[in-house]
Write a structure and sequence with these properties.
Helices cover about 35% and strands about 15% of the residues. By secondary structure, it is an alpha+beta fold. The strands form five sheets. It has a seven-stranded antiparallel sheet with strand order 3-20-19-15-14-9-8. It has a seven-stranded antiparallel sheet with strand order 7-6-5-11-10-4-21, covered by helices on one side. A three-stranded mixed sheet has the order 16-17-18, with helices on one face. Strand 12 and strand 13 form a beta hairpin. Helix 2 packs antiparallel against helix 6 and helix 7 crosses helix 8. The two termini are about 15 Å apart.
Length: about 575
């Protein structure tokens, strides 16, 4: 489909069919399908002109359609993110959030588009203390919706297409009228496209679309609905929302530079773990060697303990990130890893003094009755010009905002109410989230991108993707299908569940002797079926040939296509 045809399709305000289409049963594994140009969509693929790997198959097809219509990776990624709000609901919603890492090949920079909304002005710590805590669902747990503005910001900074063009595939899905809210969401998205069309300039059109949502009719409809139903969101919260564009945080590992969003996500914990692992030679051990698994788990325990203690919105808190990633602090923390014995203590460090351990009396961490996450999907795109996008979209689809068709998430539950803790809830503050896309550079060019769903386990699985590719020489397809593990040795990010000290969840695909050896090392091993709380997706780019390999875990129903 040409760009002109895309634009014409979206601007025709068609009435969706009145009969609901029966929901198709989801398969155990990703099913091959076909894009408009005859490219097969399965769970892995290779090509030189472009590649997409994400959750829902139709979302992958949306991205491929945009690439084939002349869009770049950023245009295609936004098309994927918009479509995922339908195909992957309720794991992700357009009233939710999405941190995005973009490598812009023209400017040769990586930017972090931090699509995370803040707590409304009425969401005070005192308010939630009186209610007995922050709810895990419902209208009061909604942060300011951020995904729409993050998409528009990405298009404005590095895209080439208009919103109307990239939303066209999503509108075709919505126009099938599978659920009543699809009709409402289609109307809202078309109104944004109409607002955009009133400007001749592309960037001004994108701003007008954002204004329609955040400072115009949609914001006021969300305000009225929220007031009528006991919510905390108000029009002023949407009007003052800003999608921040930040420099990513980075660390070197085995000659690669790994980039993550900042400490408003858990992303830097991966960097801390990689710096600790840089002191060990994993390659001779092999990926299923118990000692290789052991040191990875122990490094993750230390990194996540620091995450729980210090990470928060850096606009509100002084996060000691430079020290946490420093060589001296890393060296001090590495001495706590016993290669012969698993730790069964939560051991944050003390970056204020550079000490390996924080005095327990100084910790601000408490625990509550939280639980696991049930949200999040994935999105990776690369094109022939060298642009790369890694995004991790999320949102629980917790509550539908009236007749807007916009589902709002419940991300405020990632805050706590502990006085003195950096991640305690405050009006205007962003919660510290688990969402954490990854781009890896070699010789200043992107060579790997990773996106993983699975709450607190996201960076644990990302670590395994990177060690699989870098240390153990696996392909993307081998990495996403290999057995996985994750430690439960952290404070949960969803209602502050207490750490399961020493617990190691190990895929049943590992041999029994691996489990026995890890138990001998002191891990409390729990055998579980794959995918072990994650849905990994990986892109690998060969800078010399331009070959792009894309793969997503088929058991987790990830889809991929390339051409």
């Amino acid at each position: 489909m040409t760009r002109l045809a895309l634009l014409a399709a979206v601007l025709s305000i068609a009435t969706p069919p009145s009969l609901a289409v029966a929901q198709e049963e989801r398969p155990e594994r990703a099913r091959p399908s076909t894009t408009p140009e005859g490219i097969e969509t399965g769970w892995h693929g290779e090509g030189t002109r472009g590649a997409v790997v994400a959750g829902g198959g139709e979302a992958v097809e949306a991205g491929m359609e945009i690439l084939q219509a002349g869009g770049n990776a950023i245009d295609a990624a936004v098309a994927v993110l918009l479509a995922l709000g339908v195909t992957d609901a309720p794991s992700y919603c357009l009233g939710g959030e999405v941190p995005i890492l973009v490598y812009d090949a023209d400017r040769k920079v990586v930017e972090a588009i931090v699509g995370q909304g803040a707590a409304p002005r009425l969401a005070t710590r005192e308010y939630f203390e009186e209610k007995g805590g922050i709810p895990r669902e419902g209208i009061e747990a909604a942060a300011v919706p951020a995904a729409i503005d993050a998409c528009l910001t990405a298009l404005g900074r590095s895209g080439t297409m208009r919103f109307a063009e990239v939303v066209a595939p999503t509108l075709r899905i919505l126009d099938r009228g599978q659920y009543p809210w699809h009709t409402d969401l289609a109307r809202t998205l078309r109104r944004l496209a109409e607002a955009e069309a009133s400007a001749n300039d592309r960037l001004r059109g994108l701003r007008l679309a954002a204004d329609y949502f955040y400072r115009g009719p949609i914001a006021h409809r969300i305000d009225s609905w929220s007031r009528a139903n006991g919510g905390l969101l108000r029009a002023v919260d949407l009007a003052t929302h800003v999608t921040r564009v930040e420099e990513p945080v980075s660390a070197d590992y085995r000659g690669y530079r790994v980039l993550k969003p900042g400490p408003v996500t858990q992303g830097p914990a991966l960097l801390q773990a990689l710096r600790l692992l840089d002191g060990y030679d994993l390659a001779p051990l092999g990926p299923e060697d118990p000692k290789a698994i052991h040191v990875q788990v122990e490094a993750l325990k230390l990194a996540l303990a620091d995450r729980d203690e210090y990470y928060a919105d850096p606009l509100f808190e002084q996060v000691p990130l430079e020290t946490l990633l420093s060589e001296s602090y890393t060296d001090a923390r590495r001495t706590l890893i016993d290669p012969e014995r698993a730790s069964i203590e939560r051991r944050p460090g003390d970056p204020s003094s550079g000490s390996a351990l924080l005095d327990p009396d100084r910790s601000a961490v408490r625990v509550a009755e939280g639980g696991p996450s049930i949200d999040t999907t994935t999105c990776l795109v690369a094109d022939a010009e060298g642009n790369v996008v890694a995004a991790t979209p999320s949102g629980w689809s917790g509550v539908l905002a009236g007749d807007t068709g916009i589902w709002l998430g419940s991300r405020l539950q990632s805050f706590n109410t502990w006085e003195g803790h950096p991640n305690a809830i405050e009006p205007g503050k962003r919660p510290r989230i688990t969402l954490t896309p990854t781009i890896v550079m070699k010789d200043e060019r992107p060579v790997i991108a990773v996106s993983v769903a699975g709450g607190d386990a996201q960076d644990q699985s990302t670590l395994q993707m990177l060690t699989s590719l870098i240390d153990f020489g696996r392909s993307p397809a081998e990495a996403v299908t290999a057995p996985r593990f994750n430690s439960e040795h952290y404070v949960g990010s969803f209602g502050q569940r207490p750490p399961q000290l020493g617990e190691l969840r190990l895929s049943t695909e590992y041999p029994d002797e691996v489990a026995s050896a890890l138990e001998t090392l002191g891990h409390s091993v729990v055998r579980v079926r794959q995918p072990v709380s994650s849905n990994p997706t990986v892109l690998r780019i060969d800078p010399a040939s331009g070959r792009i390999e894309a793969a997503g875990d088929p058991v987790s129903r990830r889809h991929a296509a390339a051409y």
